[in-house]
């Protein structure tokens, strides 16, 4: 399948829906790769990704927001998962979220030492999440900007990794069930970084 053109990509690439709870995906007129600015817990899609920690038992940032919105049943399922290694991913149901599934992935804690390992681990978060979504026959996956909050990964470096992994997956797995990959940003700064870098990875045809 063809990678979307720049025109397609930016047709409705940035959607502000913070004020619209449980924003239904179909009304977003999304293309295969999209950028969404707002709260990931409000998306109504097949799967959202949680930037979790190794315990999978909840934390701050997007992890806290997802657990708060999904409810206690999520924590119960997570207790049975025995944690998760950095760079790996595990799937649960979405419980009270509008999204059906949650893919929990554990990003690296950034440090300027051993950047190559950190980069490989972050790339692995995206790759294993995409693989898990495809294996679970899911049609959509929405990613927050993994590791760039509390875990301190520089946003530009992390965005290059995210876009590269998704492009790679979309280009090499044309038969996968994934129809839509949505990058979810919270801040204006992160949105600007994604808007700048998206055309490098999903160029106009
Ligand atoms: P990490 O520990 O992996 O760094 P954080 O949750 O601290 O994860 O941050 C990851 C990104 O998620 C940050 O860009 C943060 O602004 C963003 N974020 C926090 N809450 C939400 C939310 N409800 N929806 C979408 N993104 C969020």
From TrEMBL:
InterPro entries: Macro_dom (IPR002589), Macro_dom-like (IPR043472). SMART domains: A1pp (SM00506). Residues 20-202 form the Macro domain. CDD domains: Macro_OAADPr_deacetylase. It holds the Pfam family Macro. SUPFAM superfamilies: Macro domain-like (SSF52949). This is A1pp-domain-containing protein. It comes from Guyanagaster necrorhizus.
């Amino acid at each position: 399948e063809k990678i979307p053109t720049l025109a397609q990509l930016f047709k409705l690439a940035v959607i502000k829906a913070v004020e619209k709870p449980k924003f239904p995906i179909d009304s977003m007129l999304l293309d295969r790769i999209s950028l969404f600015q707002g709260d990931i817990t409000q998306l109504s899609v097949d799967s959202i990704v949680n930037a979790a920690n190794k315990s999978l038992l909840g934390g701050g940032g997007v992890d806290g927001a997802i657990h708060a919105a999904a409810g206690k049943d999520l924590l119960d399922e997570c207790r049975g998962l025995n944690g998760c290694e950095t760079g790996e991913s595990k799937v649960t149901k979405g419980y009270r979220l509008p999204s059906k599934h949650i893919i929990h992935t554990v990003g690296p804690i950034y440090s300027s030492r051993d950047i190559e390992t950190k980069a490989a681990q972050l790339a692995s978060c995206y790759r294993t999440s995409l693989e898990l979504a495809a294996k679970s026959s899911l049609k959509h996956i929405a990613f927050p900007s993994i590791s760039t909050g509390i875990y301190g990964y520089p946003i530009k470096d992390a965005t290059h990794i995210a876009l590269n992994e998704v492009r790679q997956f979309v280009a090499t797995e044309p038969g996968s069930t994934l129809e839509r990959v949505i990058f979810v940003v919270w801040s204006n700064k992160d949105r600007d970084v994604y808007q700048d870098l998206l055309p490098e990875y999903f160029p106009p045809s």
